[in-house]
Structures are given as structure tokens and as C-alpha cells.
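A quick aside before the break. I want you to see a complete sequence-to-structure record at least once, exactly as it would be stored in a machine-readable document. Don't worry about memorizing anything.
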Amino acid sequence: MTFRKRAHRGAVLLDMTPMVDTAFNLLVFFVLTSSFVIQSAIKVSLPEVKNATVAPTAGKPGLEVRIDAANQVFLGDRPVGLEELRFELERVGATQPVFILGDREASLGRTLEVWDTAKSAGVRELNIKTRWKK
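That is the input. The structure line, written in C-alpha cells, reads:
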């Protein structure tokens, strides 16, 4: 039995098109499935302070309770009353930090009502956000 010698072929070319398609599909997948932080549309002018400490929960995501200049309370972007706020905070308050963003024109009494409501709902990590005074 005799074997024939095969003819030597030229260089093998690698087609890059499927690899580029796969990389593009992965990029599109990760862009579409990622979550984005949406800034709230409620305008709150935070008071400025010189002597404040950074809370240990400052970098964590949490619930934001906003009090505007007209003393209206918002949870995220929707207006809520104190009872509805208590219900929502009881549902998730013990697992997440809660940040109170009170407008500089909001009354101290309203801010303390929100603070008391959050504490009575069982919130463990409760903070007030301010802006650093330069």
C-alpha cells in the first residue's frame, strides 16, 4: 500500500467577522441589561454646613425621602403622606439606609416628623444629606 504525499497548502486565514459579531452582541447585551441611576426630578436646595461627618452609609444606595420648600414629602419622585411613608419604610427600611434630603426652606418641624416616622418604622440607618460649605 502506497501513500500519496499531500500537496502543501498556503497560509490559513482566520476570518474575524464572527469574533467581532460576538463581541458586539456581548456589548449590546451588557448595555441593555445594566441598571442606571436615575436622578430625581424633585428640586431640593440642600443646606450647607461646615462641620459635618460623612456617614458610613454615604456610598451605599438607599431610599431618599425628600422634603421640598413647601414641606411636601416625597419618596423617590412621588408625593407621600406620613402614614404611607411609614408603610413603605416598614416594608424595606430595615434592609436599606434612608437619606432625608430637606430643602433649606423646609421647616424643622416637618423634617423631625419625617425623622420620627422613619424611626418608628424601624429604620436602622437614617441620615440627613447636606452640602459642604466651602
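Two observations worth writing down. Helices lie at 17-33, 82-92, 108-120. Residues 17-33 form the longest helix (17 residues). We'll return to this after the break.
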